[in-house]
């Protein structure tokens, strides 16, 4: 019997931060070695962070990454860890074309083994890989003490053919995959189904190692796992946390032994946790210690404030109530209650005097006057951001954004919008889940996410309630004119969200939507709103391209890029 | 001798506006037929507009485009124009994969001939084609009265091999190319050099037909041309205007006869015109009749206002002077002079009372107080935009944007930023050029651009001056604190712009920049500013992805998209 111990190092990296990523790799390899691992596998593009977008095109960055990989191999050997096979992702350079490559290398015996280049380069949805990388064209089998370990990177297993099909012919003992697979509702099962198929194809167990953490507008959920050749789930790491798990491969056994299998969170918890981790990592990687946001008493800002408190603690949340002449007393009370529940700073900045000053000069009416209120609030939120060094967070939800039911440069200001991908009906569901968790004892910061590995219960909530029930249950209103209700301008959210899901996510056209059973008035209303909003949403300054390299579409640079040339 | 007359229909289309694009095609074919053309060639993706980005992925859109092409073929035949070969671009569908294709079709005899699919799909810089289209793999030779016409689409001629290499073996009489090639300084010569090479490769004359007009953040410059097999330039259409030119192919002659060759504008005129056309078309395609902007008396807002007047006339420009306690009298006078010169509306909205109201509540200091002034101005500009239905234009230049020397949600507000791709030193050069043109008699709107085909002298300028000389010559200042100068925070622009060009456009790293001869302090200052600004620039709300299709990176939708499903 040949036993090989694999360590699954599910870590959170930062794009461009070669030093910190390399340091983390070192620490995890040491821990893995202490527990007897012979192979340590890390996520896709571990050393560089992922996705690095057009940063890959800078030769200075590729050179720095190459130097750092060599430094790491040398350090590991100097530490007496040269015997281990440390499988990390990085950026390489195609010698023929000088184009970057998405590369897996093996650090062993003090040397960087020039390894395997990703074959299938996704170029859809959030992915731009074909834009920046040239595809690899050779499969690779790694010999570890006589065991044959085939490797693949992320998209390589999502497409038929290519390296996995080649490996199927090569009698491998295990398929080792490193991934940078962003979170999406329901994706845990999709990935598992896929892995089961690939394990059967190569007739060997398969390791699926995924990245964890927020990077710009993506959240990677981890949830790494191992399946046996027959599809049995042998091991699963937790979601949303860094983790080091182990898998012992017995190359002589017909079937492998199962280890520990982390439970899947329920769907509401999963989404809430993804949003919190996205915000927490966006702040950490951009060096923000606190957030500021407007608290209206409505459900959107209440949920976002709750998420912020769970991410960085209530003491680092600055809630600003900015009542106008149209704000109800109920709204002001709800905002104050929320702030008290989460232990946030709470300031009241009435906008009426400011509105009056502007109106003396501008004398606006209708929508222009409504937008003015929202923009005064935007100025106040940004003033807190600038003067206290806080991240302004925007509180818009997906239904609102889809329909353009928000004010550009007004309530839409901020560097991160935690719930921008949640439809309004989902906002209510998630809020109810968080209150249920509070009632069950989960305090502030009690979530299992990166940076909170102990799984603390969190700071207790005063009455076991987080989000005021009134914020969840009252009829939504922008409160920009007397008696205003969202339903004056929009279909009821229960209906609206269904149409939006079909129109936006399923690309249904007008005829399809009618065939889906929606009535003509609703369909035409929603389509008109969305078309108009698509256009409003992109009202941030565009400009003509004149030189070889303008800003904007010419370069896709990562945001939380820590690389310094 | 066989003579075939080609009409080069250099038109301006609108993304998604199938009706209007088809109508324009009809009008140009009629005009071409009246002048004896047998073949009429239009730009890349004529019918759909270009670039259509992810709109191509919507099946409803592809179906509508297909129906419109058929309608057009039928209408042309009904009009007695069925004998012509009308070569238009559209979106097709790959029958095997159901993916969209970038397609050239020939309308003839009342039928849409399913033609040629673009082979090379650019996926760099501003291009995303490999993301959305599947590549064609067959070359095509069209038989027109016995003459063999090879075809290619844009990138097909920029890459070696592929369809042009195939056509080189096929003894063609002419290479016909349709293009959607965005403007860039110096590209006229690059395109000509390329065409000369390809004409030699296929040993035949080559037609290069380019799109014209602004589309979102791109400007297409037209400048279509014909070169002979030996590289002689035979024909050139004007830049920045719609045009219908002709080329008579003599298939029996060794060399072709030259026609009319439009002169190239000088480099400053070219850039100025590109910026004006970009703004003019952005307004037209988004249905804006006028613009509003802050007029500070500085050169950036003066140049942008001049461009706006040239685009839509001074009467449609609303200049707003928003002096603070730090604004000099000179600045106010310069702003007023500029507005008078271009015949713009001119309002004065002092921000001091508003600033005082905010400060009573917020009591800000330092940069936060400076940003507050810029944001109050942003609120005022957007109030004009909302209440009068005007496009807010942002006045930032590339040096300023690169260094983050502007206020997000402040002076950076607006839907279009005409000079965002001009370095500050270029802003001065271009402004001087415009004044020279004014002195030489070019009034407001006197540029040769789409929608102004007559090449009018324009509305006379009162004293033959457009931009106040003082705005060009004084030391730049943001005037956000007493005595402030740009040079307090930034290196002198002459030096700064040189470093920016190497760092941003040539991707030079720190070592390269030192080797370029820049001193260490300057290099470190500029790199720090740019790194910080990259990050600031992208402070518009990002958010985590939760569902299969979020907003943001998941979808790349065109802005001026007129398609209604």
From TrEMBL, chains A, B:
InterPro entries: C-N_Hydrolase, C-N_Hydrolase_sf, Gln-dep_NAD_synthase, NAD/GMP_synthase, NAD_synthase, Nitrilase/CN_hydratase_CS, Rossmann-like_a/b/a_fold
GO molecular function: ATP binding; glutaminase activity; NAD+ synthase (glutamine-hydrolyzing) activity; NAD+ synthase activity; nitrilase activity
GO biological process, one term: NAD+ biosynthetic process
Catalytic EC class: ligase
Keywords, in A-Z order: ATP-binding, Ligase, NAD, Nucleotide-binding
Active site: 44, 118, 154
The keyword ATP-binding is assigned to this record: yes
Pathway, per record: Cofactor biosynthesis; NAD(+) biosynthesis; NAD(+) from deamido-NAD(+) (L-Gln route): step 1/1
Enzyme Commission no: 6.3.5.1
Catalytic reactions of this protein: deamido-NAD(+) + L-glutamine + ATP + H2O = L-glutamate + AMP + diphosphate + NAD(+) + H(+)
Domain CN hydrolase: 4-251
Residues annotated as binding L-glutamine: 124, 181, 187
Binding site for ATP: 294-301, 395
Signal sequence region: none
CC terms in the record's Gene Ontology section: cytoplasm
Positions annotated to bind deamido-NAD(+): 371, 400, 536
UniProt cross-references to Pfam families, sorted A to Z: CN_hydrolase, NAD_synthase
Family recorded in the similarity comment: Belongs to the NAD synthetase family. In the C-terminal section; belongs to the NAD synthetase family.
PANTHER family: GLUTAMINE-DEPENDENT NAD(+) SYNTHETASE, NH 3 /GLUTAMINE-DEPENDENT NAD + SYNTHETASE
Function: Catalyzes the ATP-dependent amidation of deamido-NAD to form NAD. Uses L-glutamine as a nitrogen source.
NCBIfam families: nadE, PRK13981.1
Protein name listed in UniProt: Glutamine-dependent NAD(+) synthetase
Organism, as annotated: Bifidobacterium pseudocatenulatum DSM 20438 = JCM 1200 = LMG 10505
Name of the coding gene: nadE
């Amino acid at each position: 019997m040949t036993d090989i111990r694999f360590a699954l190092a599910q870590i959170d990296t930062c794009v461009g931060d070669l030093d910190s990523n390399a340091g983390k790799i070192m620490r995890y390899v040491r821990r893995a070695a202490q527990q007897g691992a012979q192979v340590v596998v890390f996520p896709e593009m571990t050393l560089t962070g992922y996705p690095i977008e057009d940063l890959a095109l800078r030769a200075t960055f590729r050179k720095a990454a190459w130097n750092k990989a060599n430094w790491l191999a040398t350090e590991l050997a100097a530490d007496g860890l040269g015997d281990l096979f440390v499988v990390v992702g990085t950026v390489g350079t195609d010698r023929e074309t000088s184009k970057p490559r998405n590369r897996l290398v093996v650090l062993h015996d003090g040397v960087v083994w020039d390894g395997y280049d990703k074959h299938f380069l996704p170029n859809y949805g959030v992915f731009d890989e074909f834009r920046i990388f040239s595809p690899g064209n050779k499969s690779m089998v790694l010999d570890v003490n006589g065991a044959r370990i085939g490797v693949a990177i992320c998209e390589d297993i999502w497409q038929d053919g290519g390296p996995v099909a080649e490996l199927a012919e090569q009698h491998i003992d295990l398929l080792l995959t490193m991934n940078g697979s962003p979170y999406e509702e329901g994706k845990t099962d999709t990935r598992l189904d896929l892995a089961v198929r690939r394990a059967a194809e190569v007739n060997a167990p398969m390791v699926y190692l995924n990245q964890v953490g927020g990077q710009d507008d993506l959240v990677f959920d981890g949830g790494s796992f191992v399946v046996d050749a027959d599809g049995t789930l042998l091991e699963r790491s937790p979601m949303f946390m860094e983790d080091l798990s182990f898998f012992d491969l017995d190359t002589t056994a017909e079937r492998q032994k199962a280890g520990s299998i982390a439970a899947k969170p329920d769907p509401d918890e999963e989404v809430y946790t993804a949003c919190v981790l996205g915000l927490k990592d966006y702040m950490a990687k951009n060096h923000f210690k606190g957030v500021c946001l407007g608290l209206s008493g409505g459900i959107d800002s209440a949920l976002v404030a709750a998420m912020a408190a769970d991410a960085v603690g209530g003491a680092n949340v600055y809630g600003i109530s900015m009542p106008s002449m149209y704000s109800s007393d109920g709204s002001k009370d709800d905002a104050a209650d929320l702030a008290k529940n989460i232990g946030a700073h709470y300031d009241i900045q009435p906008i009426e005097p400011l509105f009056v000053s502007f109106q003396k000069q501008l004398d606006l009416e209708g929508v222009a006057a409504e937008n003015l209120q929202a923009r005064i609030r935007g100025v106040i939120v940004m003033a807190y951001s600038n003067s206290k060094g806080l991240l302004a967070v925007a509180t818009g939800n997906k239904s609102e954004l889809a329909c353009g039911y928000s004010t550009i440069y007004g309530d839409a200001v901020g560097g991160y919008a935690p719930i921008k991908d949640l439809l309004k009906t989902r906002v209510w569901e998630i809020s109810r889940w968080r209150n249920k968790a509070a009632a069950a004892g989960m305090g502030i910061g009690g979530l299992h996410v990166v940076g909170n590995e102990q799984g603390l219960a969190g700071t207790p909530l005063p009455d076991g309630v987080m989000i005021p029930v009134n914020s969840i249950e009252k009829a939504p209103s922008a409160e920009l004119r007397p008696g205003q209700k969202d339903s004056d301008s929009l279909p009821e959210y229960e209906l609206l969200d269904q149409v939006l899901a079909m129109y936006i996510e399923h690309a249904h056209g007008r005829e399809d939507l009618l065939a889906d059973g929606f009535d003509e008035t609703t369909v035409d209303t929603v389509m008109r709103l969305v078309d108009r909003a698509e256009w409003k949403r992109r009202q941030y300054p565009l400009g003509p391209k004149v030189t070889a390299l303008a800003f904007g579409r010419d370069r896709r640079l990562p945001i939380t890029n820590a690389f310094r040339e």
